[in-house]
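Lay summary. Proteins are chains of building blocks that fold into shapes, and those shapes determine what they do. In this project we predict the shape from the chain. Here is one chain we studied, written as its sequence of building blocks.
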Amino acid sequence: MKVKGNHVILSLVALVLGFMIAFSYNLTNKERAKPDYKDKSWDREFQLRNKLIKEEEKTRDLQAELIEKQGELTSIEKKLANEANVYFNLAEDAEKYRMFLGKIKVKGEGVEVTLSDGMTENNNDNINQYLVHERHVFKVINELYISGAAAVAVNGQRINQNSYIVCNGPVITVDGQQHPAPFVFTAIGDADVLESSLNLAGGVKDQLVNENIIFTIEKKDKVILEPVLGS
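And here is the predicted shape, written in a compact code that computers can read:
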């Protein structure tokens, strides 16, 4: 009975060992049948790396396209800036032309020149030698424009490129409007320059004074000239 009991124990031990060996063998075969984990991980990394490289290439292409578009945009902006400058200059020129044509109201510093008929105590003198004539008016207006006046008016009436001035006895007709003496010329421009030009030795002032015309000039900080009325 004792020998038989040992045989039973040994048999059980042998059975357990056999089972463990069989289980281990089976598990090993299954693991060998599966793909290697490291190999699978490397494949996944390789795929991701290739995908990343492709995305980087797309990014570089997009960056190159962006730089090209930015260059085109810069060119367009420069072109628009040049056009804006051209249009600004055209608008500025148009404003100057409107001002010279007397189409708009203007204001600024300037001068006020007054021409009055001269006086004589000798009744035998020719009165026409003491009156302001159209030539005197032209001298003042021309000198003002030559000296840089932007706009000129006579007795408040704007002068433009089509203005005509005619002497009719003791009055001056400007564009059909009669004005008696004294004649007041208002001009917009650099007041110092305008005053100096008219006061030059041997200039307009001296010429008019020598022809018995009373001449006065005054600088103005603010001169306002209304636009030309009518057509």
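What the prediction tells us: Strands lie at 106-116, 151-154, 157-158, 165-168, 171-174, 177-180, 183-188, 214-225.
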